[in-house]
Amino acid sequence: MSHGQVDDALRILNRISNKPSLLKVAEQKGINAVRPVATIATEATAEYWAKNALKMSRHELEAFVRAHNNQENQTSQQVAADNDQQPTDKTVTMKLKPELAEKLERLNKGDWNDLVEKFIKLYEKDLSESKPPIHEETSRNIPKNIKNYVLKRSGGTCEFPKCKQKYRHLHHTNRFASNKIHNPDQIMALCEAHHKLAHRSLIDNEEKSPENWKIRKEPNFNTLNWFIDREVQTYRRV
Question: How far apart are CA 168 and CA 139, in angstroms?
Fold first, then answer.
């Protein structure tokens, strides 16, 4: 290990020195296993984060922590906005090719909001018109036209809110085993980490569109998805 790596490991150990449950995970899985939670775990929450660090991979835990933090920030911003009772505009930064930037400048004859809204409506219309029908099949293989539609909708990236990772799985939010259908509205492109979180029943409102998704602190054991996922995992271990 380099001096930098040693210093980094010592900083993490110092942060969790008063949290025995996280120290135990570090001993079992290595220092990187607790790295994502070292700065957010308190003495009161250390056992909770240790439990997750023990069963999750580092990348999965990082995604879980990011979603957890994003939700807390969003809640704080919403509370502030409600108190102020004034809608706040958001600034969006884009990197565009020079020729595209010039075309946008020429097209914009007034408010940027009006122009962007028109583009979004055209995009949504095109996406809606290209959506394939629901397929009822016995095969788990997703039909090509549905796969192409999902990748077009997602842009090939994970559809979990604010995730920009490349997709790795096409995920049935209403498990295929429960109804044997391929519904393009219930198949989401997910990265590896968020796919694992979904199968741990840690995504709330999973049956709705992604903008409604929330990360759960504990699995939801009262859903058909959780029962199916548990049975699949049991079958794979046999």
Answer: 20
